[in-house]
Amino acid sequence: MSENNFKVDISSTALEKGIDLAKNFLEKLITPTVEETGLFFKEQIISWRFKNQIKILNKARNICIENNIHPKAISLKLLCPLLENASLEDDKFLQNKWAILLTNMVDSEQNIENHVFPFLLSQISKPEFLILEKTVFLRSERRLRLAQELNLFLETKDEKKKNLELEIKSLANKTDDYKELRKFWKLQNEIKDLDERETNIQIELYKPEYINENELEEFEMANLIRLGLVKNLPQHYVYTNGAEIRNDPSSDYLTLDDLEINIENDGELYFITELGDLFMDACKKKQL
Question: Where do the domains of the chain lie?
Answer without folding.
Answer: 1-40, 42-124+273-288, 131-206, 217-270
